[in-house]
Amino acid sequence: MNDHLHRKRGRRLAAVIYSSMAACLLNFQAAHADPPTASLWDVGQLRAGQNLATSLRAHKISPQSIQRIVTALDPYVAFKRIQPDTVYRYVFDPEGVLREFTLEAGHRVWHLTLTQKGGAVVRPFNVTRRVETGVVDVVVDTDVGTAIRSAGEALSLARRVERILLTDLDRAFELRKGDRFRIVVERIHLAHWVMQYGRIEAFEVYRGKQAILAIGHNGGYYDATGHSLTRHFLRFPLSYRNISSEFVKQRKHPILGGVRPHRGIDFAAPIGTPVWSIADGEVIAAGWRNGFGRTVVIRHNYGYETLHAHLKAYGPGIKVGRTIRQKQIVGYIGTSGLSTGPHLHFELTRDGKHRNPLKEPFPQAVIASDEREAFSAKQARVAALLSPDDETAVAIEMPHPVSTLFQR
Whole-model pTM? Predict the structure, then answer.
C-alpha cells in the first residue's frame, strides 16, 4: 500500500515538474525565437466596426483557422470587449497552415501555439511595450516587397514600402535587380514579438555608386537638401490606368468626326470605378457640361485646375465651393455626354493653358525655414543609423499605447 502511494505521488510530482519545465521551455522559445522567414507572418489591427473574426477574414485567414483561434482563446479573452486598434500577429508554416497567433487583450498578451495534431497551447505574457528603430537591409532580386519579406519582415511592411514607392513619391523609384535598399523603420514590440510597425523614418537606394536618400518629416519625404519627394500632385486620378486616348495635338473625334486637339487623357475603366482628386483644392464646377456630361472641375494651388468628365455620378459631398483633399472621391466612371463607352476624360490646365498630366513637372515643396533645425536633427539621426559602423537598433520605451503612434 505504501509503495503504491509513493508511486502515485511520484507520478504526480513528475507531472508537475514536467508541466513547469514545458512552460519554462515555451517562455524561453518565445523569448529567443528566430524571426519568421519569407512571407509566413504578418501583423494586423482592428479597425472601427470590426470584430476579431472580420479583421482576420480581411487578412485572408481561413474560417477554420479563425474558429481554432476563437475556440482556444475563448476561456481567456472577452472577445465582445475587444476595442478598435487592438493589435495581433499570426504565423504560418511553409505549407500555409496557421501555427501561431498572438493577441493583446485584457492587459495581457496572449500567445497561442497550434499543434499539428489539432491541439492548442495558450500562454499569457505581461504587456511590456517598446519601440526599436532599426534598419532593414535588402538586395532586390525580383521586387522590393519579396526582398523585404525574405529578410524576415512582415507582409504589411512590404506593402507599405511598395505603396510609398509607387504612389506617394513624385519621383519614379523603380527598383531593379541588384539594387540595395535600406529602410529605417520603427518595430513595435509587445512582450517578445513584433506586433506592429511605426514610422518609416527614411529609406535609401543604392545603384552602383549612386545613392538616393529619402527622409520622413511631417508626413512627407524629403531628399538630403530638404526638397520634397512626396507627390503633392498625383499622376493618375484613379487606380485603373488603361489609357484609351492620350494627350495629342490632333485626333479624329470618334463621334463628331473631323480632326481636333485632344487636350486631356482618356482612362477606360468599368462603370462605377472611383475617380479621385489628384491634389488638395476647391470644387469650382459640378454639373452637366454639354458633351462632357457630368463634370467636376477643381482648382488647386500653383494655378492648376483639373477637369473630370463623363461621370456616372458625383462623389459624396461634391458641391461647388467645397474644399477637397488629395485622393478624395470626386465621382465615378460613367459614359454621360458624348461618349463611346465608359471612361474618364481628364484634363489639366495651369494658368488657363492645357498641360499633359503624364509629363507635367509639378512644383516641388521645400522644408520651411522654421523646420530646418528639426529636419537637420532627424537627418543626423538617420545618417547615424545608416552608417556602416552602426549595426545596433535604437530602443525607446513606449509609455503610450500603440494606437497613438503616427503611421504613414
Answer: 0.64
